[in-house]
Amino acid sequence: MARGFMWMTMVGGLLPACSGPTVAPEAKAPDTHAEKDANTDTPPVAPPSNAHILSAYHGLDRLPPRVLRICPGPSVRKDGMPVTFSVRLDGDTLSPEDFSVETAAGETVTPTCATLLPADEPLERRTVLLAGTFGTAEAPPRSVKVVGDLKATNGASIKGLRTTTITPLAAGPSLLLAERFSPTTPGLAGECPPATQQVVQLTWQGGVTGPQGAELGEAQRTSVTVTLEDGSTVTPLALADDDPDNVVHVCLDVATRAQSVSVSAGHFHDPGDDANPETRIEVISGVPSIR
Predict the structure, then answer these.
(1) Helix (H) or strand (E) holding 280
(2) CA–CA separation, 252 vs 291, rounded Å?
(3) Which residues touch 233 (CB under 8 Å, ≥6 apart)?
């Protein structure tokens, strides 16, 4: 089943563009590593110690027309695969040649397109949408690797980062990151209701909506449970940043620090209408954008 970012419903009219800000705190991800450049005598600048790929999401088996406006021409009839990093990225250093995808047949594929759109707001910029011929539901891609000099927003290269864990087409999206911010943080102004005392920014593997592309509503809000530092649990006052893309803001009207977020299964859907599994993640302190 074709799937992908909820992003895909918003990118019509956007042109290819990328930018980025700062390095986020560490979050654990499987099978990622950095390698030296074998073609030079001097090793490249080491990636940030916490930099890794959080997820490679084989999200679409064919890009829809609205996505082709940001990934035009050679991307027609191609797959879409969002790749999310633990650090924010410098979009000025991003190109399709920065990535290498290994197919089920062992072939190496260079994407036809790589873009931070549409999740390119100041506190986002972690997820790169790749377009190319990557595989099928029956023969999914094996790995994704950064082979070019793509940089985090602190200037460090993340060349060599790799993952062999690819979320398949049939799976629904899971949580990757939960970052706690003050509602006055630049980039959050006006996102949440006035009573909000803290915001938890959720990053999903892929885009999320209600069923069949509906806006996020009460069913999604009440499916989210936030555990606080004192052990109590609360339901969000509201969900915000329904752009849509793969980032959702959880607005809380309590000051006690959020410790973890859990979402019950079956409420957040991707564009192929695959629903999320039960998913839970610890909350970390968010790092504001530096530019």
Answers:
(1) strand 279-282
(2) 26
(3) 225, 226, 227
The region that residue 290 occupies, defined by phi over 0 for left and psi between -120 and 50 for alpha, beta otherwise, is alpha
Higher pLDDT, 244 or 95: 95
* CA angle (176, 164, 149) in 5-degree steps: 85
pLDDT for residue 290: 60
| Sign of the dihedral through C-alpha 53, 92, 38, 109 | positive
Vertex 247 angle, CA 111 and 19, to 5°: 55
The SS3 of residue 67 is: helix
Residue 221 has pLDDT above 50, yes or no: yes
> Which structure tokens are listed for 237?
């006052």
Q: Dihedral sign for Cα 194, 184, 27, 177, please.
A: positive
Q: What tens digit of pLDDT does each residue of 228-278 get?
A: 999 999 999 999 998 879 999 999 999 999 999 999 999 999 877 889 999
Cis peptide before 16 (omega within 30 of 0): no
C-alpha neighbours within 13 Å on the C-beta side of residue 277: 11
Return the closest-CA partner of residue 122 out of 224, 193, 22, 219.
Answer: 22
Check: CB of residue 238 under 8 Å from CB of residue 267. no
**Can you state the percent helix, strand and coil of the chain, rounding each to 5?**
10, 30, 65
Q: What percent of the chain has pLDDT over 90?
A: 67
pLDDT of residue 45: 44
Query: Which residue has tokens 């990757």?
Result: 176
Q: Which two tokens stand for residue 5?
A: 């970012």
Q: Single out the residue of 28, 27, 26, 46 nearest to residue 36, CA to CA.
A: 46
Distance CA 156, CA 124 (A): 18
Task: Report whether pLDDT(211) > 90.
Answer: yes
**Residue 69: per-residue pLDDT:** 78
